[in-house]
Amino acid sequence: MLDITHIQQAADRIREHLLRTPCVASHTLSDITGAQVFLKFENLQFTASFKERGACNKLAQLNAAERARGVIAMSAGNHAQGVAYHAQRLGIRAVIVMPRFTPGVKVERTRGFGAEVVLHGDTLDEARAHALLLAEQQHLIFVHPYDDPDIVAGQGTVALEMLAEVPDLDVLIVAIGGGGLIAGMATAAKAIKPGIEVIGVQTTRFPAMVNAIKGTQHPQGTSSIAEGIAVASPGKLPQAIIKALVNDLLLVDEGDIEQAIVMLLEVEKTLVEGAGAASLAALLKHPQHFQGKKVGLVLCGGNIDPLLLAAIIERGMVRAGRLARLRVSARDVPGTLALITATVATAGANINEVHHQRAFTTLAAQNVEVELVIQTRGPQHITEVLAALAQAGLTAQLVQSN
Known about the structure:
alpha/beta; Rossmann fold; Alpha-Beta Plaits; elongated
């Protein structure tokens, strides 16, 4: 079994090649959740993910003959970039097999680090099978993203740094895909502070580690906005460590993760991907577990597709009542649309979209239905806009999103 000596050796090995990311208190998130929240900004690494740590530790230990053969990895993006970057730095050929669904930003950045990218399969398992085949055919060294003691030891250095900065942390909340990060962190944290709680987080769409540890039968989905932890088969080494050292595992939904991404963007002005927001999502969903405790969250990655981010922000604004869809019905006479828009403007809301509907409505033929998407200051402002429309003699209602 891995122990803290391996992690300390990894820390010495990688120290000059990675950023020691900040671990700082978030007063606003602490006020919101009732816990004392400390954030570890692994999204600030050069490749925007903690995965650099394990990759650097692994590649640094290859001998000259192994380096000459080259390396291959399978990854949805962050491990790929970590391996590609440090392979380039060390002059090692790198081949990366990525699932076809991998966000374009991760594919292009991986290529930008000089790696040969092969897109294959729809899941990490399919990508892994193809990577193993190529490794055999081309005699490449396979660098597993999580089921490798050198990788796990490198990831565990996150906990060393967090506890050096905030020694009295009560809880660590860590996202789980294959389990390499939490396995390394739990090994380090429990050795330094045996009483610390380590809590793992998975998405409801990819609960493989929860099922393996708890014996549950949660169904598995096919995609997640947290594609970095969308792993169908948990690592054997991490699973053994998690079973021995991790206190509990929690599940979060896609909406929980979206909310956490938007909150980190608004509150902390920091950009994270779905996996990077999973720890905060768990804290927001289960605040009663953590109230009054000093909680360390790992923002484990920041590589998110810009189009996905735009959609998440817009959906977050809907949930917060900052964007609202109204349906207004009125007589279809000249000036009606002008009255509606003027009333909304006078109430202080801005109109994003207008849809004038005559044919697809059950209203009388001489009436019209107008749908508006408006920007507001929040739920109370929506109520004020609806009241202003009613006062103007218009029938209006809020159209609830699903």
